[in-house]
């Protein structure tokens, strides 16, 4: 059963539980990469965009807003012209990022095996056709 408002634990197997929304966000590739990029400390928006490579300004902004809304990222604006904005991990975001980095490192380490499995699968499928 999903957690009531006063309880602090959810049930992701309950389709009505809001933990599913959170899982949807943290399973997103941009979330994984943004959190990893912020792991070394605060980063300005454009530097973060350059670091991620391939993310649109709109998608980065949307990802950062969602992360901030969920308490995983903090946003700090400086009164400059133009305004300078810096993003950093919150304490909650730091705890999540430890685990997300393990996932990213696992993917980087095993990509060769996964690509080989894909080739083998595709070859078997082609032979069956």
What would you note in describing this structure?
The protein has helices at residues 19-26, 29-37, 45-52, 57-69, 91-128, and strands spanning 43-44, 73-78, 84-89. Helix 2 (29-37) crosses helix 5 (91-128). The chain has one domain: Winged helix-like DNA-binding domain superfamily/Winged helix DNA-binding domain (Arc Repressor Mutant, subunit A), CATH 1.10.10. It is built from 5 helices and 3 strands, in the order H-H-E-H-H-E-E-H. It has a 3-stranded antiparallel beta sheet. The chain is globular and about 65 Å long. The protein starts with 18 loop residues before the first helix and ends with a helix. It has 129 residues and is mainly α.
Describe, in short, the structure shown:
The chain is mostly helical.
């Amino acid at each position: 059963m999903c957690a009531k408002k006063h309880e602090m634990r959810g049930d992701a197997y309950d389709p009505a539980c809001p933990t599913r929304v959170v899982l949807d966000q943290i399973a997103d590739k941009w979330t994984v990469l943004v959190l990893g990029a912020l792991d070394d400390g605060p980063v300005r928006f454009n530097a973060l965009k350059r670091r991620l490579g391939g993310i649109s300004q709109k998608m980065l902004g949307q990802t950062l807003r969602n992360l901030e809304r969920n308490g995983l990222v903090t946003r700090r604006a400086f009164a400059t012209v133009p305004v300078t904005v810096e993003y950093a991990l919150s304490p909650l975001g730091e705890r999540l990022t430890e685990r997300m980095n393990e996932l990213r490192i696992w993917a980087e380490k095993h990509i060769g095996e996964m690509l080989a499995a894909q080739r083998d699968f595709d070859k078997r499928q082609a032979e069956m056709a």
